[in-house]
Prior knowledge:
By secondary structure, this protein is α+β, with helices and mostly antiparallel strands. The protein is built from 4 helices and 8 strands, in the order ββββββββαααα.
Amino acid sequence: MGEQPIFTTKAHVFQIDPKTKKNWIPASSSAVLVSYYFDGSRNSYRIISVEGSKAIINSTITSNMTFTKTSQKFGQWSDPRANTVYGLGFGTEADLAQFVEKFREVKELTRQLEANTNGSTSDEPDPSSPAAVISQMRSLHARTSSMSSVGSENDRRSLTNSLPVSESQVKYENDRLKIALAQSSANAKKWEIELQTLKNNNARLTAALQESTANVEEWKKQLAAYKEESARLKKKVSISLCAITTPLLWYHHCRYLVVFPHFVLHNMLLQREK
């Protein structure tokens, strides 16, 4: 019996930044199908999400995992095996609530299965035996399969067909993930080079701006000097004009003083003759 989807919803997928352990990095370009899968041959659950041909979530659920609701439409859980923290952003609060409830149910069934697999040795039928737990799982699958209404049947079939179901396919997916990681490292190197180029350009622009500012200050000083020189020349020209016009005024004034007595004497003579 291969893996079968028991619950499917849609959400935006994120992974924690491995460097900062604080910032979220988008793992999907848009809202994608996120499904709970049950593997009947291994009696295990996985949360799986695929975008295109890339598996962006492949998380096997254990009894130690905890799904934490961090906001009204966002939740996260840590996967020690994958050495990462997954985050899901849902479109509605109801979608998040359904996903959280399903996580609790699957975690509890996983815990029961692990406990009975490790500690049960009785030959008598036990309601909590692995067979009974598996029966409960299958009953739960039948009950919750109707809840998997998000996405079309074709989408779920496409998601199922694209999942790894053999060791060779798992190895193939791991190789692809390694290639994607190498490509991401190459892209990071390219972005680092581009960032350094931008820093160099910024430094050159800063130097050019400082030089322009210095030139402006120099031009201001030259303009002030030209203004002072212009004012000095204007004053010199004014003094020169004054020196030229003053003798002319004195000349006309003295000429009037010389002519005026003769005019008076002439009038006096005319009066005597009369």
